[in-house]
Amino acid sequence: MAESGISRRSLFAAAAALGLVAPASAQPARAWPNGARAAVSLTYDDGLNSQLDNAVPELNRLGLKATFFLTEDNAHWRLSDWEALARDGHEVANHTVTHPCALSGYSADRFEHSEIEGMEGYLDAHFGADRQRTFAYPCGYLGIGHGPRRERYARYRRILERDSVIAARTTAGGPNRPAEAVADPLHLHGFEPTFEGDGVGPAIRYLNETVARGGWAILVFHDVLPKWHTDGDASVATHNKILARVAALDVWCAPMGQVFDYVERRWR
């Protein structure tokens, strides 16, 4: 989580205790596609080889489409594979050119030109300019430059708005309520189910909460490896169990841009 060493789960628990996270009450009766009880988007950050090698085969086996937030620094090594993945119906989207996390030294102009516009141009050239423009904040960091938090956050949002980003995903928060996602599309909640350990329990609890609310879960993955090594990784076995749980639930699983487009039309 940006600007803090507090764990993501501890932060979410503290927010819930303070009443900052809304209770798990149901959404208004506005149906998800095919009568599903909730929506789920599977997202993968950084454009990593392990995602192509270990995550995509299981996604395809289960018929699930996901969003891959690419950096040019990583994606160019296997560009043809990412292009094939996009042709197969998965979403590719902007995660900046170089994945900077410490943004205090950036001016808004420099960050916009080098990281946001630069990556949008790369994606336009290789994946087409007619794609939906979605974004994931590297490291969950939401502010640029110096000054009060509100000013730093506002700089980032203005950049994304100028570059026609329709929705942006963070790495914390409870399941998204559709009306709130429409009201604040540049602060969609994401959840990293294996950030602090390689178990399926956090993902199952989060998915169950999403179904109970009738909301929208955005799950976040990074490396998908034979064995879990460090924060953010998922072992192949755990990743596949989470995907199997998604496939078994009465949910609509679709890329983030597709779900947001539906939410915007249905809940506006």
Overall morphology? globular
Label the structural class. Answer: alpha/beta
Tally of alpha and pi helices: 10
The low-confidence parts are: 1-28
The end-to-end span amounts to: 29 Å
Estimate the helix proportion, in percent. 40-55%
- Give the overall average pLDDT: 90
How many β-strand stretches?
A: 9
The gyration radius over C-alpha positions equals 17 Å
**H/E element string?**
HEHEHHEHEHEHHEEEHEH
What's the main sheet like? 5 strands, parallel
Q: What percentage of amino acids are in beta strands? A: 5-15%
What does this structure look like?
Helix 2 (49-62) packs parallel to helix 9 (236-248). Strands 1, 2, 3, 6 and 9 form a five-stranded parallel β-sheet that branches. The protein has a two-stranded parallel sheet with strand order 4-5. Strands 7-8 form a two-stranded parallel sheet. It is α/β, with parallel strands linked by helices and 268 residues long. Strand 1 (38-46), helix 2 and strand 2 (67-70) form a beta-alpha-beta unit. It has helices at 8-17, 49-62, 72-75, 79-87, 108-127, 149-162, 178-183, 201-213, 236-248, 256-267, and strands spanning 38-46, 67-70, 91-94, 134-136, 167-169, 216-221, 224-225, 234-235, 251-253. It is built from ten helices and nine strands. The radius of gyration is 17 Å and the shape is globular.
